[in-house]
Structures are given as structure tokens and as C-alpha cells.
Q: What sequence folds into this?
């Protein structure tokens, strides 16, 4: 029941976001017709084009048209490419999603393994070293991480060839093999955040009363850790997962530039520079849907793990 | 036993790291060793020398001068963003947290929507609306940062508002304004400072990201993100061109986050 | 209802008080849940009496205290004060003093807001009140963090007395304290009451403490006052099963 | 059964080592209820945790000896200590709200000591747990078995804690302020439940409290602690009528007296 409510409110959020985006792009100065034809065009040409693009209708009418179109999967026509926006972004979306999922996976594995190690060896040299390295990694912007990865693993060790992107419809294996590198760049700073969150959760939970109870029943410290502490410590991290996924999706847009991947980010950039608003709107709405969908998943996961929220 | 000393060492380290970047950045506002714009074909991609400790870029411009200028741009945008976001966010958060009610509810729903959005994408959207450029990026980021400040301060005001000492202050005849300003605000300072430091880091990273994409700071203004994006072509021939501005970002962010840990 | 005090001046009148809270919504679509906390409370307090208000957690006694002082919204009913600036002493001395202010600032706050006393007069008054609660004036420059629980509660009492109130509401003022400190604070309250002619509404869950301090006792359950009379009357001859059970549990009956 | 001699506990997590318990002596015979009374910071909880073998913070130093049925609790290997904990010695705590794991079902938690110390199968464990839940006077044990802690009231949770602690019929139950967080009426119920368990099962109880009048209701013998030292000990009635130490006198006179003639 609650999940249903959540879904309904998620749909509302998408609606609000899309409205805001549409209105914002409609009221800002700048004429798409001029952008398309250039400043040398005659007034008649511009007027004709505006009519053809539906720009002369009042804002609410254009909005209703746009929403009705979006509901049918039609985001309008790109000003600069001249083709339907849906066709333009449909085959780029899987690139973004794959990259985000791979980096999510890397993040979780890294964070969980290292945090458990550090929690166990809180005072050991390696545990402390991980803590220090972690703080440095947290400060690396993903695109710079990408540059460093290119430099070390691409140019020096030649583990992959920078710029040698292969599309998923040509060779899926090689596609994923290439995607791992940008995914690492996005995952690293997030993994270090997840690591600190999980570690402080684990250390904090260790001091809770129920842990003392567990020891009083004769549990070994291993049993206390895995059977009692771990699940409780994961709860705050789950909330973070939703945010991290959202940030990773945004991160893919930037990291594409480093690794020369023709994905959503490239189209978004050129469209922002060309003021090609139908494309920008479509990409933002798509990402909003992805983000909200992932938040919904996180909510469900939360309810599974924490009985108090049921 | 030496817990205190270790803690201090951490904050001193943080201050030192921050200073390494921020002091040259502040100097860079007024003076740089060379004119960062002067193009000199003979020095194209020159290596490190006494005259040019970090070498020169693809136009033969002194990298040290450009780093100083770029850091100062990044630093100023970070400061501007955080101050703007913190002032407006604190105001909104304080009022909604203190009074609650319908406006609070509507604003916070809106806030939730904004916050569920990745901040970089939010900034991208605002830049798409405002257009690129130093001050526009600052505006875009400041607006994008208001919701997170508002949420943090609202939660703090809500928490402190329910403390018994605030009730006691009310019984002492303090006005709403006095309660907010004298009794609640000072008790939220710790959280506020921390939020400002984290916000500064996020602003620096976002600005660098936007400029890296070419839609942030525009030439002739230098920016660390922009330098990184220019350097990419020469990554193999002159890796230091990429590494130096990248390190400047990392050192600044790391230093501030170490100071932030201390405040916690 | 007891009529022992009818020949005295009334200081507080509570008439048919109802309070309900609406639970905060967890999402936009949740229906607001209404929880009734107080269901028709009526009682009077008279000058110079100490009234105990006894009940278990969740019976609404703290809500009643706050409602009387206007610290939460009431749904229905009347609260009439016959004295100025009624004050409150809170349960947890660790969160009833502003941690970022000095004791002097805290004590003088009400004088700044509501009187025209100058700096020196304010300080004199703060010193006097501190002395009355058994603390000397060097505590003025301290912050609450440097004080023990018992000392803090003394400061809270001094603070409540700054405006010379006639009515004091004490919400479990000793339950967070150690037994020996508890006894000291109770003694202090009893002394101050005599010295200043205060009326005190003393909220507690401890029937023994109430017996020691109060003249009259009210037993509260589920937002209603189910018994009201002199302490001797009620303890000796409880009228409701609930009161009997409370007395039994406390080992009094 | 339990013999504690010269127990000293020090903490080394500050610059100056801090001793919290000095020269603590205690003997408990099987079937006995002993009260341990003191105010906050008196060291009573620390002593109790040490006896339960739960004081394992690596910066705590312990001296002296705690011998339970021939086992040296302070110095024995961890495996031996673990075989005693939850089997022969059990403990319940002050905060029933936080002493149960919030994400595990009640049944799982009540059965835990069985899982660790016996080789009962799943069904047997469940039967035993249900039996224990009934024993501590909880209605509808089946429903409680399936519940999570947050679905129960404070009094119910403390009963669950007692059920879990008693499931292996321990020789010694250490109860650290088990009623402080509860309402008066619930408090009285828990006290009478502990009394009944002691009578029926012969479990010795070390009852730690700050409330002398409560201790008087329950314990034959009492030990009074102040700032780490034992200041008084003996038969409860003897202590009440003839307190030796100034502090004990003070403590007793702090209890408000109700004299209804």
C-alpha cells in the first residue's frame, strides 16, 4: 500500500520536474528560430519557422502538447539535428545506465569489503592507512580520476586504448570491458564516501546496548559482528545508495568526455551550447525518471532491511 | 592518550593543505609571475624550468600563472556559491523550521524534489538556462545549493526549537526573532560551519566539472576545470599539464574536508 | 473535588481542557492522525498550595503543564491565570539550559525582555536568586556544560524565580537526578515555597516524593484527572482501582 | 557459587588512568538475591559487567579475581567464558528499548542462547522459546514470537529480555537496573516476576539498583557502593535499621517516607 503511494508521488515528482524544466526553457530569452537559421535570416523565414515549430502558441497550449507527446514517447524534434529527439537519445540511454550500474557495483563491493576489514582491524596499520587514502580519494573529482586512469592504465600500461570505445550493439563484451574504466573513475569517490559511512555505522553499532546483550548470550565476536551489527550498520548506507546512484548518472555525463564515449552527455552538451531545448528537456526528464525510479528501489530495499519502517 | 595531539595534527594538516592552494589563489587575484594570457609560440609545451617552474601550456602560457589565476577563479566561485547558498538557505531553513505550517510543507516538498536530483545535473540545468560565464555559474550553483542548506538548517531549527531551554526562553518573554537569533542560531553554528565547508567543496568540484565540460567559466577567464579539459589532448606528451591543476583541486578539497572533520 | 482551599485566593483555573495533536505526515498522501492527549481536564489551584500531579508515562501530564503555560495549542477549554509570569521547571536539566550562554545571560534573559532594570540591578537580582538556591555568584560566569545535574536544576529553579512568579509548574524536576540530590532539591523547593509563598504544580510519577512535598494530589490517567484530594485522603482511601494499583506498586499500601 | 575478591577496575582511555572500582568483594550462594545499590558513577554497573564477563574494552584493566563455579571469569580463555555466558550466567539491562536488536524478530533473539549452547533443532527451540514467553507472563506468545522489538511496549520488552536470559535456566541472573526505565506499575510487575523466577527455578539474582526501597522489597542482602568503594554490606533489614556508614544513612534518609497511620 505504502509502496503504491510512493509510486504515485514519484510520478507526481516527475510531472513537477518536467513542468519546471519546460517552463524554465520557455521563458528564458533566446529564440530557437534564430538559433536554427542564424542571424542572417529574414523576418518572414523566422516567422514561418516559428509557426512550423509551434512557438507561436501560448505557453499552456505548448505545454499540453509537449506533455501529451512525452506520454507517447515523443519529445519533439531537435532544432539542430532535425530528427526526433526520441530517436536521438534512445540508443544513448543504455550507455549511461550500463556505466552507472557497473560503477554502482564497483562502489558497493569496494566499500563493503574495505569497511568490514577496517572495522575488524580498527587500530591496525593497514586499517588506518585505508582511512587516510580514503580521505584523499574522496577529494578526487571523477573527471580527474578518469584522466589519471587514462594516463596510468590506458597510456602507460596499455590495459585499454583511450578513445577506443566500441558500441554495445557491435561487441557487448568489449563494450563492457571499456566501460569498466570510466565506471571506476565515477565509483572511487562514491565508494570512499560509502566506506566512511558504513565504517562509522559499524563502529557506532558496536557500542550499542543490543551488542552487549548479544555478547551476554555467549556469542563470539564474529557472530556478533555478522549476525547483529552488520545489518544495522547497513541501514544508513541504503539511503546513501539512492543518492549515489543519482550522482553517478550525472557523473557519466562528464566522464564520457574523458573517455570519448558518445553517450547522453555529449548530446546534452552540444544541445546546451546550441540552445536545442527539446533535447535538453528530454535528457533531463529521462534522468529524472531514472533517479526517481532508483529512489523508489531504495525505499523498497529500506523497508526490507529495517522492520521499523514497515 | 595522544588523541588530542593527533586530532590537532589533522586540523593543522588541513589548514596547511588549504593554504597551499588558497594563498597563491588570493595572490593570483592581484599578481601573477607572468601575464597568464600572453601567447608565446617558442614556449609551446615547454618543460619545467627556473623561469617556468610548472612549464608552459599548448599556447606557451606560463602554467604557474594560469594555475594561480584558475585557483582564484575556482576559489571565488566556491566562496560566492557557498555564501549565497548559505545565507538564503539559512533564512529559508530557519523560518520554515521555526514556524512550520503549510508554507514549510510546500517548500520542503519542493526541496525534496530538488535534492533527489544530482547537484551536478541541477547546476547543468541552471547553466543551460542562464548560459555560461564566471558570474552566471556562481549564480547557478548558489541557487542549486540553497535546498541542501535549507534542509540542514531547517532540521537543526526544528530540533533546537523543541529543546526545553527554548521553551524557558519563551516563558522569559523573548520574541520570536530573539528566540531564533539569540537562542537557536548559536546552537546551530557547528552544523552550519560543517555544511559550509562541505558546500564549498561541492561547489569547487561542480565548478571544475562545468568548466571541464566547457560550459562553465569561459575564456579569457582561467579555471582549473578548463585547464584540465585543455590538457587532455596533450596527456601523453605532457602529463604534468593535466596533473598540476588536478592536484590543485584535490589539495584544496582535501584540506577543507580535513578542517571539516575537525569541526565535527 | 476537594473543597479544603475554597476560602483562599485562586491562582489558576483550568476549565474543560482538551488537547489533541496531529501526527506529522510521513508523505503527502497520509491522512493526518489525531491523537487525543487531554480529554476534559478541570481543576483550580489556590495561592500557596503545592499540588502533586501523578501519572504514568503517556498520561498527558507534561502536555497539561505546557498547555497551562501556553507552550502548546489547546483544542478546547479555558485556562485562566490570576497571576503574572507563571514559570516552569523542566525534567531534564541537561537540555533546559542553553549550552552556548553563560548562567548570567540565562538568568537575566527574562529581566531584559520584560523589565526595565539596568545592568547592575539585573546582576544583583541574579546573584540574589542564585544565593537562594544555594549557589554562590561565581557560577554567573560559567556555562551550563560545566555544572552537575543537581547544580543545573538549581540554576533552573533560580531562573524560574527571576520574574517573581506566584505560580510554578515543576515537570518531574527530580526524576533525572540521583536519590540524594533528589532529596536536596525537594527540600529546596519546599523551603522556597514557604519563603516566597509560591503555588507549585508538582508533576511526578513518584508517589513517595509527592507525599513528602505536596498538600494536595491529582491522579491522572489517559488524559483525565481521575482523583483529586488532599494527599492524606487519597493515599489513605483511594477511590479508584488505578490509584490503588499505583500505591501498591510503590509499596505504600 | 560466585566469589569475587579484591576486584579493581581501571580505565586507560584518558591521559590520567581512572579507577572506577576499588577492592570489590562479593559472594553469592545459589538461590540468593543480592542487591547492589549506588548512585550514578558509583561503579555498580562496572562491577556487574565485570562479573558477567562483559568488560572487554581493551583499555580497561582488571585486578583481583572473579570465580564462578570454579571458572576464573577474569582470566580464563574467551571460549570458556563464552560457554558460561548465556548458559550459566545471564544478564538483563536497564534499557529494554535498546537492549534488543531492532532488526531481528523476538523469537530469533529469545532462542539465541539455545542456538549457541544446545543442539536443539529448530522446532524444539521454538517450542522452548514459546514456553519461556509464556513463563514471563506475556499474552499470545505466538504473536510476540513473530514480532519485532519496536512493536512491543517497554514492559513487554523487558519480559522478553528476561525470557531470553532465562531460557537456559542459568544459575545466576545479573539484573542491571531492570526497572528504572519503566512505569511504577510495570516496575512492580517485573519485580514480582523476578521474585517468582528466583523461587521456582532457584536462580540466584544480583539486582543492581539506585532505589533502596525497591531493593528492600526484593533482596535479603544488600551491598552499598559509593565512588567505586563498597561502603556498607549485610542483611537488608539490618542495614535499614542500623546503617553503619554516613553515606548509607544519607541514602536511607533521602527516601521519602510515607507514614499513613
A:
Amino acid at each position: 500500500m505504502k509502496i503504491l503511494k510512493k509510486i504515485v508521488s514519484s510520478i507526481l515528482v516527475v510531472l513537477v520536474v518536467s513542468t519546471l524544466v519546460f517552463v524554465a526553457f520557455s521563458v528564458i530569452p533566446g529564440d530557437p528560430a534564430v538559433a536554427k537559421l542564424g542571424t542572417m535570416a529574414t523576418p518572414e523565414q523566422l516567422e514561418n519557422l516559428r509557426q512550423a515549430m509551434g512557438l507561436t502558441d501560448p505557453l499552456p497550449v505548448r505545454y499540453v502538447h509537449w506533455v501529451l507527446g512525452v506520454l507517447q514517447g515523443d519529445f519533439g524534434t531537435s532544432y539542430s539535428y532535425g530528427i526526433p529527439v526520441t530517436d536521438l537519445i534512445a540508443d544513448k540511454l543504455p550507455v549511461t545506465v550500463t556505466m552507472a550500474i557497473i560503477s554502482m557495483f564497483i562502489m558497493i563491493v569496494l566499500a563493503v569489503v574495505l569497511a568490514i576489514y577496517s572495522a575488524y582491524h580498527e587500530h591496525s596499520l593497514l586499517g588506518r592507512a585505508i582511512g587516510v587514502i580514503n580521505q584523499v580519494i574522496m577529494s578526487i573529482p571523477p573527471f580527474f580520476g578518469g584522466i589519471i586512469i587514462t594516463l596510468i592504465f590506458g597510456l602507460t600500461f596499455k590495459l585499454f586504448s583511450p578513445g577506443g570505445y566500441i558500441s554495445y550493439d557491435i561487441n557487448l563484451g568489449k563494450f563492457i570491458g571499456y566501460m569498466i574504466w570510466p565506471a571506476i573513475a565515477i565509483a572511487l569517490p562514491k565508494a570512499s564516501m560509502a566506506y566512511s559511512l558504513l565504517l562509522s555505522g559499524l563502529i557506532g553499532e558496536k557500542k550499542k546496548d543490543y551488542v552487549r546483550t548479544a555478547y551476554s548470550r555467549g556469542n563470539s565476536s564474529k557472530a556478533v559482528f555478522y549476525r547483529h551489527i552488520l545489518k544495522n550498520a547497513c541501514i544508513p548506507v541504503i539511503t546513501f545508495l539512492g543518492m549515489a546512484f543519482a550522482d553517478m548518472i550525472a557523473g557519466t555525463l562528464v566522464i564520457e568526455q574523458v573517455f570519448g564515449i558518445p553517450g547522453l552527455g555529449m548530446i546534452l552538451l552540444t544541445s546546451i551550447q546550441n540552445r536545442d531545448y527539446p533535447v535538453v528537456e528530454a535528457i533531463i526528464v529521462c534522468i529524472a525518471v531514472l533517479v526517481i525510479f532508483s529512489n523508489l528501489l531504495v525505499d523498497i530495499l529500506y523497508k526490507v532491511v529495517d522492520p521499523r519502517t514497515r | 592518550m595522544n588523541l588530542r595531539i593527533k586530532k590537532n595534527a589533522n586540523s593543522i594538516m588541513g589548514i596547511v593543505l588549504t593554504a597551499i592552494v588558497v594563498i597563491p589563489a588570493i595572490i593570483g587575484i592581484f599578481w601573477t609571475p607572468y601575464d597568464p594570457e600572453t601567447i608565446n609560440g617558442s614556449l609551446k609545451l615547454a618543460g619545467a624550468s627556473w623561469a617556468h617552474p610548472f612549464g608552459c601550456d599548448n599556447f606557451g602560457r606560463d602554467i604557474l600563472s594560469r594555475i594561480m589565476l584558475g585557483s582564484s577563479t575556482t576559489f571565488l566561485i566556491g566562496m560566492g556559491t557557498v555564501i549565497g547558498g548559505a545565507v538564503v538557505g539559512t533564512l529559508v531553513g530557519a523560518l520554515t523550521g521555526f514556524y512550520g505550517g503549510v508554507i514549510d510543507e510546500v517548500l520542503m516538498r519542493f526541496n525534496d524534489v530538488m535534492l533527489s536530483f544530482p547537484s551536478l545535473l541541477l547546476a547543468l540545468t541552471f547553466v543551460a538556462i542562464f548560459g555560461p560565464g564566471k558570474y552566471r555559474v556562481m549564480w547557478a550553483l548558489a541557487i542549486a545549493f540553497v535546498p541542501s542548506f535549507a534542509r540542514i538548517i531547517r532540521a537543526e531549527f526544528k530540533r533546537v526549537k523543541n529543546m526545553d531551554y527554548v521553551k524557558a526562553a519563551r516563558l522569559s518573554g523573548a520574541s520570536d526573532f530573539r528566540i531564533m537569533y539569540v537562542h537557536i542560531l548559536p546552537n546551530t553554528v557547528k552544523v552550519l560551519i560543517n555544511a559550509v565547508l562541505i558546500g564549498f567543496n561541492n561547489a569547487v568540484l561542480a565548478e571544475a566539472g562545468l568548466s571541464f565540460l566547457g560550459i562553465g567559466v569561459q575564456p579569457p577567464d582561467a579555471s582549473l576545470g578548463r585547464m584540465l579539459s585543455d590538457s587532455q589532448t596533450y596527456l601523453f606528451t605532457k602529463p604534468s599539464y593535466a596533473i598540476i591543476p588536478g592536484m590543485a583541486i584535490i589539495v584544496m578539497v582535501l584540506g577543507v574536508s580535513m578542517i571539516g572533520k575537525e569541526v565535527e | 473535588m476537594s473543597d479544603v482551599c475554597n476560602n483562599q485566593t485562586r491562582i489558576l483555573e483550568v476549565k474543560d481542557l482538551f488537547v489533541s495533536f496531529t501526527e506529522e505526515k510521513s508523505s503527502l498522501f497520509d491522512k493526518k492522525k489525531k491523537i487525543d492527549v487531554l480529554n476534559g481536564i478541570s481543576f483550580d489551584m489556590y495561592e500557596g498550595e503545592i499540588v502533586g500531579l501523578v501519572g504514568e508515562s503517556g498520561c498527558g501530564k507534561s502536555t497539561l503543564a505546557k498547555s497551562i503555560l501556553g507552550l502548546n495549542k489547546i483544542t478546547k477549554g479555558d485556562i485562566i491565570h490570576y497571576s503574572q509570569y507563571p514559570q516552569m521547571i523542566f525534567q531534564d536539566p541537561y537540555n533546559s539550559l542553553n549550552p552556548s550562554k553563560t548562567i548570567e545571560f540565562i538568568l537575566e534573559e527574562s529581566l531584559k525582555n520584560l523589565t526595565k532594570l539596568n545592568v547592575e540591578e539585573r546582576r544583583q537580582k541574579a546573584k540574589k536568586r542564585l544565593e537562594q538556591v544555594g549557589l554562590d555568584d561565581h557560577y554567573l560566569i560559567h556555562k551550563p556544560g560545566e555544572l552537575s545535574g543537581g547544580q543545573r536544576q538549581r540554576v533552573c529553579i533560580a531562573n524560574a524565580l527571576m520574574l517573581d512568579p506566584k505560580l510554578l509548574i515543576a515537570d518531574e524536576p527530580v526524576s533525572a537526578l540521583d536519590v540524594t540530590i533528589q532529596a536536596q532539591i525537594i527540600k529546596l523547593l519546599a523551603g522556597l515555597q514557604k519563603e516566597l509563598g509560591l503555588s507549585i504544580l508538582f508533576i511526578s510519577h513518584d508517589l513517595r516524593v509527592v507525599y513528602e512535598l505536596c498538600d494536595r494530589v491529582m491522579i491522572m490517567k489517559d488524559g483525565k484527572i481521575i482523583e483529586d484530594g488532599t494527599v492524606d485522603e487519597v493515599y489513605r482511601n483511594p477511590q479508584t482501582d488505578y490509584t490503588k494499583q499505583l500505591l501498591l506498586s510503590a509499596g505504600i499500601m | 557459587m560466585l566469589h569475587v575478591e579484591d576486584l579493581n577496575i581501571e580505565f586507560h582511555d584518558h591521559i590520567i588512568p581512572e579507577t572506577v572500582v576499588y577492592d570489590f568483594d562479593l559472594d553469592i550462594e545459589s538461590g540468593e538475591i543480592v542487591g547492589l545499590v549506588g548512585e550514578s558513577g558509583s561503579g555498580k554497573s562496572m562491577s556487574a559487567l565485570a562479573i558477567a564477563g562483559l568488560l572487554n574494552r581493551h583499555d580497561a584493566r582488571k585486578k583481583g579475581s572473579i570465580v564462578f563455579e570454579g571458572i576464573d571469569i577474569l582470566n580464563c580463555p574467551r571460549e570458556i567464558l563464552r560457554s558460561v555466558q548465556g548458559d550459566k550466567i545471564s544478564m538483563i539491562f536497564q534499557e529494554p528499548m535498546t537492549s534488543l536488536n531492532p532488526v531481528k524478530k523476538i523469537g530469533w533473539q529469545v532462542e539465541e542462547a539455545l542456538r549457541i549452547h544446545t543442539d536443539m533443532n529448530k522446532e524444539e527451540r521454538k517450542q522452548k522459546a514459546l514456553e519461556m514467553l509464556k513463563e514471563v507472563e506475556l499474552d499470545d506468545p505466538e504473536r510476540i514470537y513473530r514480532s519485532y522489538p519496536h512493536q512491543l511496549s517497554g514492559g513487554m520488552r523487558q519480559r522478553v529480555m528476561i525470557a531470553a536470559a532465562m531460557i537456559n535456566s542459568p544459575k545466576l541472573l545479573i539484573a542491571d537496573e531492570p526497572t528504572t526505565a519503566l512505569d511504577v506499575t510495570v516496575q512492580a510487575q517485573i519485580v514480582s516476576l523476578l521474585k517468582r523466577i528466583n523461587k521456582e527455578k532457584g536462580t540466584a539474582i544480583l539486582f543492581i539498583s539506585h532505589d533502596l526501597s525497591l531493593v528492600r522489597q526484593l533482596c535479603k542482602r544488600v551491598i552499598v557502593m559509593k565512588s567505586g568503594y563498597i561502603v556498607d554490606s549485610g542483611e537488608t533489614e539490618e542495614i535499614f535499621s542500623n546503617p553503619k556508614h554516613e553515606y548509607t544513612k544519607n541514602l536511607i534518609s533521602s527516601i521519602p517516607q510515607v507514614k499513613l497511620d
In short: Residues 78 and 202 of chain B are 8 Å apart (CA to CA). Chain B has a mean pLDDT of 86. Chain B touches chain D through one residue (CB under 8 Å).
